[in-house]
Write the structure tokens for this entry.
Amino acid sequence: MSPPLPNRNGFTFAEILAAMLFLAVLVPVLSQAVGLASRLSSASVRREAAVRIAENLLEEAVATGEWHSSDNTDEITENGTTYTWERINTVWTESGMNAVTVTVTFPLQGQEQQVELSTLVEDES
């Protein structure tokens, strides 16, 4: 009868080296992916806020008749980000119509980005 083989629990040195090599390649790639996802999420949140601000300003100007007044500009700060907006009223090619445009400018990744919304309003005067 042959002697029993010793119990060999655990990993070999080669298996440990292979796992470390795999992690050395995988961790930087995953780190970059998480960073990119975070930047894209931030960009999406700011762009969504800028669109919401522009919609609200445009709706308010039309509902209250403020679009008749001269062009207007101001700033709104939301969640630590300053959004600069400008409302411009221009005569449309059709008689009796005016184009009201709201442009919201905001910082994103070191650059200024803009969202612009327009609507046509009938001039009742």
User: Anything to note?
Assistant: The chain has one helix and four strands. Residues 90 and 99 are 5 Å apart (CA to CA).
